[in-house]
Amino acid sequence: MVRENSILKGYKKTEVGVIPEDWEVRKLGEIALDISSGKSKVKHEQGSYKVYGSTGVIGFNNFYDYQ
Length: 67
Hints:
By secondary structure, the protein is mainly beta. Helices cover 6% and strands 34% of the residues.
C-alpha cells in the first residue's frame, strides 16, 4: 500500500515491494519441502487416455488423474 511515495503505517518496503510489517521475504526453496516439475507421468505404449508432457502427447494410460 503506497500513497504518494510514502509507506503506510503497518507496511515496509522490501526488495520485492511493499509488504505488511509482520511478513518476511523468503525464497520459495527455503519454505517448500520439494519443488519439482509436476506430477510424475505414468505412460505406456497403449491406453485409453493420452498422457501429455510439455512437448505434446508422450504416451498413454488406462487411468486419469483429473476430470
